[in-house]
Predict the 3D structure of the following.
Amino acid sequence: MKRWIGILLVAAVAVVIAVYYVTRPEKAMETPQTAQTTAPAPAAAPAATPTPPAKPAKDSVVIGLSLEPPVLDSSLNAAAAIREITYQNIYESLTRIDRNGNIVPGLAESWTVSPDGKEYVFKLRTGVKYHDGEDFDASDVKFSIERLIAPDSKVPAKNLYRSIDTVEVVDPATVKITMKNPDAFILFNLGIADAALVDPKSSPTNGTNPIGTGPFKFVERKEGESITLTKADTYRNPDAIKLKNVTFKFVKDPSAQINALLAGDVDTFPGFQAPELVGRLKADDRFAVVVGSTQGETILATNNGEGKPMAKLEVRQAIAHAINRDELIAAESGFALPIGTHFSPADPAYVDLTGTYPFNLDKAKELMKAAGYENGFEATLKLPPVGYAKRAGEVMVSQLGKIGIKLSIVQLEWPQWLSEVFKERNYDFTIVAHTEANDIDRYARDGYYWNYVSEEFRNVYKEMVATVDPAKRTELLKQLQTIIAKDAVNGYLFQLAKIGVWNKNLVGMWENSPTPSIDLSEVYWK
Amino acid sequence: MTPGSPLHRALRHRSFLIGGALSLLLIVTALVSLVWTPWPVTEIAMARKLQGPSAAHWLGTDHLGRDVLSRIMWGARNSIAVGLVAVTLGMAAGVALGLWAAARRGWADELISRMSDLVFAFPAVLTAILITTVFGPSATNAIIAIGIFNIPVFARVTRGAALSLWGREFIRAGLAIGKGPLRITFDHVLPNITSILIVQATIQFAVAILAEAGLSYLGLGMQPPLPSWGRMLNDAQTYMYDQPSLAIFPGLAIALSVLGLNLLGDGLRDILDPRLKVLRVG
Amino acid sequence: MLEFMLRRLFAALFTLVAASLVVFAVLEVLPGDPALVMLGMEAQPDTLAALRKELGLDQPLWVRYFAWIGDMATFDLGRSHAYKTDVATMLLNRLDVTLPLAVLAVSFAVCLGLPLGIMAAANHGKAGDYGVMMFSQAGIAVPNFWIGLLLVLVLSLGLRWFPAGGFPGWDKDFWGSLHALVLPVIALGLPEAAILARIARSAMLDTMREDYVRTARAKGVPERGVLFGHVLRNALIPIITIVGLFFAFQVGGAIIIESVFYLPGLGQLIYQSINNRDLVVIKDVVILLTVMVLAINLAIDMVYALIDPRPKIKA
């Protein structure tokens, strides 16, 4: 009997060891990997080894993304990942937003604006082809833009283009857009991913098989895994494009992202979501960690509606005084900038208003008392499923708890957050980053989820939108920022940082994120 | 104390003693957390985040500088609440249905068997996710989701035990003297199945703690900043590279509690009646 | 025999219909609007209405229910709202991960748990038996995702023997994919091995008390022959049952382990579809999983009926 047990045990151990050795590929071993990627030591053995043939420059890149896009057509779905992958790579728009947020020519070579701001005439590039060989011309522009503004349009960003009245084809290389009213942001909005220009013939299948005019064409998609693009031979300026193969790989979890980078499976995470893990990457000299700006104002969105304690200005001011941004930013491991209003610090028109209601618990308690909430109140904090909201949420519970506001957290998935908080406005507080550019207009909207109504703000906003003079407009934008800061509409927490991590030899990635995009047209390997 | 009496057997039964001690530890921890924890459970102190075990923080601190021991103690309370309510809920409904099925036979029996088939046919985690999605994630809804799975477990066990009783002499005698099925159920059936119900309840308590840990690992149980063991493990996954102890203690708490309750259940079965047929659904 | 099988089949069909109604009803009351999820924060009432119409969400309940059942009956799984791809394709992609994971984990559990159970029964009351029982109690008490975390902590982050998560894909890197499944397989399989050891042990002990085993021993059949020839063969029924249940559990229930190791499996597909309100996918996958569980249960019943005549009479 004893012998029999012995045999069994030995056999089991042998099987385990065998399985291990069989299933262990060499590439997973960490040491040779590191040795390979860190600088080779040519001085060590100059004579013995023959000089390796000069390797051609690397021309493929693997880009890691946290979220997978459901489709590859921004007219079908609002997911940011669609825009990050397709914008400037697969599709192009009339104008183009460059890495610094400037509006530069896209498929329109040049344009003129009438003095009253109501007529735009765009001169198109000629000789532009789609990936399937079809020619691009003015009728495609008319189709693409009318798709955005049609009465039965199902496009997520329809609201951005409501000021457009008509689109006319003047000749195959000229388009005229007539506005219902002047719109200071229209040139920007015509340059983002939502205004991608597509061919009516291929547009119905763009969701699964995107065809555009950009430098890269779609090759294949492995649902749940990756999307592959390759350099398009139809592109008008093939020499400018250095990369040949591009793979977007989806890795949802931050610790898995780290592992993918360390193992060399992924060359870059342009938007790394876990600031708490960056330290580990900084320690590795293969990678560059670049902190850039985003348009993501992270706010403690507050329901200002009737009947809520937060309808009182004193209560909102008390909350503003109770917010300790240093602690919040520490929870983001330092990768965030303090903000005092709803505006990106990267924008030239930004005003620093963080001192409007400085951190002061005594002052906050006084204001609570003045508002009649000496003993505080209970409220819910409904959080969307994102890392920064989770982190900042737990910090807010602790901070507001000190002035008697007892928050209870409810973690929601996006669908519930969108319907309960955003659409039905059934909430007290939430934490969310507003990542759209130029989104201060939300404060002028009827029925927006903050329930904020201010005639003063609306009047200044109307004036700003109709203003064509840039200096005057900047002045008005500053006024707008100050109004909402003083009203403490929301708790202004911090501006999300764009933490870009990439291999040190990869050049040309966007450091900032003026609009969701991973533009690869200028990227190459050193 | 006479040799052979249940108490005597209990004191000599090793797994009963170990299980009892671990379960008692769980309960005492939870009770103590009601009045005292070494540190505040939710207060954030970024200055001392991600520390390892020390004299001040016996089990270290988490990514927001909160004391892990205090949070585990509070988590014990959460786990007990979940186990208690989910088992009570499942037992109340399941026993009633099982007794009814056994007393009525025929279509009632068939209906209840099919209903429990239906519940068992769905993957449990998936159903729990759907339930918490419909009603919103909260400790209460996680408890309800787990409780629903306890209903068919208790219904099956009760039905099986009760059916075998219905064929026995003393029940036939009861029927002969004109007692109705309801009277018989309460006078004769229920008292005779208490042993199996106690044992099954102990086992289900353990199952409920495991299930709650799984759900809160996915973020569907107790909502932050209040702790639950499963969620602590989820947080730990991000930070365990920097502080491995974060991934160890909450898991140990789960394992020891479940082990204790399982040992207690097995011990109870041996002591009460080793032939009891316990249902194990994980 | 035939009557018994028909009865079981009928019962399974009844359960299936009930399940389809339950799933449909649950998805009806699921909060959150699929159209709003697709269009996001800038969605306008007019665009939302147009999209809802396109998705067919404006149709009456019963029309949608029967349309779905009709499609399912003709093996048409339909198209995902969010992904605009065929559900069947999405499903097959995910099964590439989930099926190997389930098969390997169950094999691991059998290879480890069965010998342990047999060993314990053969050494009933001795040290080996206690050892196995201790392993079994510990294995049942430990949550599988915690085993997963500990494995990652020691074997991935510490020793760097295995990847901490992710899945390269079979056609891209076969050995790498297998390598990526090792830790999840152990995490899933270890608690199951513990349960299996326990069940195998008690099933063996039960059969050992049967008369024919004693007779065989008395007749001088060698111990090993008794153990494998008589006892194990008759203890197989509960073992097969539990193995079948493990398999069913793993195809649909490995959601948590797939989360721990970031495996793009079926569980993750359902989880993601719930969070995207991709109703078509949720409905289809849940029903297919139910069909699978029912089929496995049915198969177990049949095996019972063939090997052992008793349940037939009881039913």
